[in-house]
Specification:
By secondary structure, this protein is of the alpha+beta class. It has 5 helices and 5 strands, in the order ααααββββαβ. The protein folds into 2 domains: 69 residues; 63 residues, SH3 type barrels (Roll).
């Protein structure tokens, strides 16, 4: 079982390494995979020893509950980011201000919004904060929609110079 866990970790680590995942994140992911694999092996051994599939089912339910509680905030940020991107109340280039931060929006991602604060400091704001708090948005001229200006002269009225058709 230990050999299978090591092989799985090595293959996952290689795939993540090719995607240039940071070293600290790579170590954390490897440890999580190892703990999950060993936990599943313990559940299977316990079910085999007790001759009951209920132990595996109870373990899987418990693991699902723990995982869902663990990723609750992460999912909250993803759902909030989806709505922020969908509603477009905040756009890159806007200056925003709310309780804990102020700055110009440089990027809106699904999980976080990046602001450029005073002195050029980058501020990373979880999207759940933007979604659940009152935000003051100042639209900048750079992102205001621009209207095409029609040239002066006879071209400005497309109907000008067209004679009516009579029969």
């Amino acid at each position: 079982m230990w050999i299978a866990a090591r092989l799985l970790i090595r293959s996952i680590g290689g795939a993540l390494d090719r995607r240039q995942v940071r070293g600290s994140a790579l170590v954390a992911i490897r440890r999580i995979v190892y703990v999950l694999f060993v936990g599943l092996a313990v559940l299977i051994l316990f079910a085999w020893a007790s001759n009951s599939a209920n132990a595996v089912l109870a373990g899987l339910i418990l693991a699902t509950l723990v995982a869902s509680l663990g990723i609750q905030d992460l999912m909250k940020n993803y759902v909030s980011g989806f709505y922020i991107l969908l509603e477009k109340h905040v756009q890159p280039g806007d200056r925003i201000r709310f309780e804990s931060a102020e700055g110009v929006v440089s990027d809106i991602r699904l999980r976080v919004t990046l602001l450029r604060g005073e002195g050029g400091a980058q501020v990373v704001v979880p999207n759940a904060e933007l979604f659940n708090k009152t935000v003051i948005v100042s639209k900048t001229a750079a992102v205001a929609p621009r209207r095409k200006r029609l040239p002066d002269g006879p071209e400005k009225d497309p109907a000008e110079g067209i004679e009516p058709v009579t029969r």
